[in-house]
Amino acid sequence: MAHKGNSIIKGIEISELITVLNKAYADEWLAYYQYFIEAKVIKGIMKDAAIAELQQHATDELRHANMVADRILQLGGTPLLHPQEWFTKTNCGYDAPAEFDVVSILQDAIKGEQCAISVYSEIADMTRNKDIVTYDLVSQILADEVEHEEDLQALHDDITEFVSELKEHINH
Ligand SMILES: [Fe+2]
Ligand SMILES: [Fe+2]
């Protein structure tokens, strides 16, 4: 544990911070696996563009898990040791893909990102002016999650627009 490092944390319980970060850590692993498996099972129109996006997001979520784990250790905590805890500690849960078409997969993924944005903005509110290191870390992750949502939404809109134009042409 970084004693001097932790002494700069003011007005917030370190144990509470560790609990909150471990919940986010569970979310990141579940998000990583959700993207990983979505990229495998996805089917249909423009799926290659979606696969590239999903794989990139999987890589980012794993990187986030790494960042959060390192901060938990710095604070003197232990990152969750058993994958079973991912399900009991998660904020955002795990949405196993039910439909494998591109639009359904993208919609599930967008929902996940919206949850991640809420979680990190809450941790940012909790740590602002109290723990600058965690605040900086969650701000970086939050910026990635905002970008993820935007990328998925843009792809979703392109695909649904393309499909509806296609339908128009067929009907004329
Ligand atoms: Fe993430
Ligand atoms: Fe994300």
From TrEMBL:
Signal sequence range: none
Domain Ferritin-like diiron: 11-163
Subcellular localization, as worded in the UniProt entry: Cytoplasm
Gene3D superfamilies linked: 1.20.1260.10
GO CC, one annotated term: cytosol
GO molecular function: ferric iron binding; ferroxidase activity; heme binding
GO annotation terms (biological process): intracellular iron ion homeostasis
Residues the record lists as binding Fe cation: 28, 64, 113, 145, 148
InterPro entries the record matches: Dps-like (IPR014490), DPSL_diiron-bd_dom (IPR033921), Ferritin-like (IPR012347), Ferritin-like_diiron (IPR009040), Ferritin-like_SF (IPR009078), Ferritin_DPS_dom (IPR008331)
Keywords annotated in UniProt: Iron, Iron storage, Metal-binding
PROSITE patterns recorded: FERRITIN_LIKE
Protein name, as recorded: Ferritin
Organism of origin: Sulfurovum riftiae
